Amino acid sequence: MTLSQKKRAQIINAAIAEFKASGYAATSMDRVAQTAQVSKRTVYNHFPSKQALFIGIVSMMLDLISAATKMGYSSQLSLAEQLQQLAQKELRLFADPEFIDLARLVIAEAIHMPEQMVATMQHMATLENSINYWFECAIKDGRIQSENPSLVSSQFLSMLKGRCFWPQIINRMPMPSADEQAELVESCIAMFLSYYQPKP
């Protein structure tokens, strides 16, 4: 990591801390510079405005999603096995405190910035295209009965997020235990396949 990259990371981490402590509106670039232990000029060299700094935080969250949601389709492996792999990728991401903190911060503050909220949600949907592509491949392979890969993808992910994302974001609930997560994944896969898998 170069010195410039280290400075940028310091600034983003400082901004996250300040936004969490004081909120977006009450946080100043001066305060971010103090917390990051860099000059105000250095902050502005990396981020020309507070909104640009917030977008930098959003990008950091989206990078975590992108890294966690890559999923290739295999016609050789069972659907249940592949769906389990997909679910485990998602749950590992949702169990990451850094990701949950970022997601909670971004969602809470983006509500006050409708345009940024829309852009963020659209970008998140784009990053989940690799998951949509998995479902599209399974549909083309005749192993899932549907004409809408985006719909079936969102339905499967929503079953997971209903227990292992939104309760943690909104109510700050702890993640379910490993046994509870395993039970959730098993039941989600069973329900999904009972509806979408072609009957013999």
Automatic annotation (TrEMBL):
<keyword id="KW-0238">DNA-binding</keyword>
<keyword id="KW-0804">Transcription</keyword>
<dbReference type="InterPro" id="IPR023772">
    <property type="entry name" value="DNA-bd_HTH_TetR-type_CS"/>
</dbReference>
<dbReference type="InterPro" id="IPR036271">
    <property type="entry name" value="Tet_transcr_reg_TetR-rel_C_sf"/>
</dbReference>
<keyword id="KW-0805">Transcription regulation</keyword>
<dbReference type="GO" id="GO:0003700">
    <property type="term" value="F:DNA-binding transcription factor activity"/>
</dbReference>
<dbReference type="Pfam" id="PF00440">
    <property type="entry name" value="TetR_N"/>
</dbReference>
<feature type="domain" description="HTH tetR-type">
    <location>
        <begin position="5"/>
        <end position="65"/>
    </location>
</feature>
<dbReference type="InterPro" id="IPR050109">
    <property type="entry name" value="HTH-type_TetR-like_transc_reg"/>
</dbReference>
<dbReference type="InterPro" id="IPR039536">
    <property type="entry name" value="TetR_C_Proteobacteria"/>
</dbReference>
<dbReference type="GO" id="GO:0000976">
    <property type="term" value="F:transcription cis-regulatory region binding"/>
</dbReference>
<dbReference type="Pfam" id="PF14246">
    <property type="entry name" value="TetR_C_7"/>
</dbReference>
<dbReference type="InterPro" id="IPR009057">
    <property type="entry name" value="Homeodomain-like_sf"/>
</dbReference>
<feature type="DNA-binding region" description="H-T-H motif">
    <location>
        <begin position="28"/>
        <end position="47"/>
    </location>
</feature>
<dbReference type="InterPro" id="IPR001647">
    <property type="entry name" value="HTH_TetR"/>
</dbReference>
<protein>
    <submittedName>
        <fullName>Transcriptional regulator</fullName>
    </submittedName>
</protein>
